[in-house]
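Amino Acid Chain and Its Fold in Token Form
===========================================
Structure side: the spatial fold of the chain, written down as a series of whole-number tokens.
Position: the record begins directly beneath this header, with no further notes in between.
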Amino acid sequence: MNREIWLAGGCYWGVEKYLSCVRGVVATEVGFANGRTEAPTYEQVCRENTGHAETVHVVYDAQQLPLEALLKLFFRIIDPTSVDRQGGDVGHQYRTGIYYREKADGDVARRALSELAKQLDQPLAVECQLLEQFYPAEEYHQKYLDKNPGGYCHVPLEQIRWVKGIDPVSVL
């Protein structure tokens, strides 16, 4: 049974590449979530304070990959205490977030964040909200690191290599 979740973790190129390598992820698409303008372009999000977060729409097989495991893997590549910054990327569009459509998914996400918070000595900066809207980014951003293997990525390559080889349920 395929399910959907939207994850924001800084520049969406690396987040998309990493998540696309997780066993049980069926499809990924980069775009912009929960902003104030309709159908923004990348340039608008970067320069016009649209309020959107660079986000990856993730379709996953819930029987193979429980949402709890997917979120734990996502937490491995973000700094959950950093406000409007991941890696070298700074700005409101680079905030971290979990966006959902189903109430049950929001409940799972809040529990996962609560567990994560117990492991840290700083407050979390990860949004957990109902998805208000998602607009796909321009085509040249889709699967960007597959098209540009040497392209910028704030997600460490060793994390991408690591996640390819694991059974995601093992992180639970």
Remarks:
- The longest helix spans residues 103-118.
- The chain has a mean pLDDT of 97.
